Amino acid sequence: MQDKTQLGTVETSIENQIASITFFHPSHNSLPGKLLAKLRDAINDAGANESVKVIILKSGGERTFCAGASFDELIAIDNFENGQKFFMGFANVINACRKCPKLILGRIQGKAVGGGVGVAAATDYCFATKYASIKLSELAVGIGPFVVGPAVERKIGTSAMTQLAFNATEWRNAEWARAKGLYADIYENVEEMDAAILALAQKLAQSNPEAMRMMKKAFWEGTEHWDELLAERAAASGQLVLSDFTRNAINKFKSK
Questions:
Q1: Cβ(204)–Cβ(48) under 8 Å?
Q2: How would CATH label the architecture of 4-193+223-255?
């Protein structure tokens, strides 16, 4: 039997100075550690590629953008070091987006949960379909959205962040996410969304790359301490995931 945590892909294609980074996992685009590392590397590589002017970050499949952490990998964590290392995977992806000198457009075709909301929030300009509901489910499994919290809060504010974090079992629809600032635009279907993303990406590819780099740096001002902050948050999550409460909660979710 193949280990689910070893499945999944991250692929990059470049056309007309636009890099499209696509991640995929058969379990609702969940993100085990190895896939998170590949995603981080793909973002870093595209950011360093002089032939790339703008990046589109997306996932495969139709109705789920990202289900967040891999439950199979979470339940297998048996010590603090492995727990911290796993949650650093999300921290590294968020920091890669933050530090990338290129603008990143998010393509959210469906539901985003937990770490998936964090990935969406780490992009610079986010498109979504009407199916792109969001939920921060971490508290429901005994953890908390510590690692993704700074990225999400930066986009939607403290009040909306607390609503998501404390009401961890309730979905918020795409309109709610747009009203709070996570999504810039919402579309009826993937075809309309993709057309809009391509149109903006093409405009940006013809824009001054130095001006865009400076704009991005300005818009992310105040996050320079996130390397240390997210590492601290990953350590907190790595400790919590070892608790009996959390392990029991994860097993209940897996059995549903």
A1: no
A2: Alpha-Beta Complex (3.90)
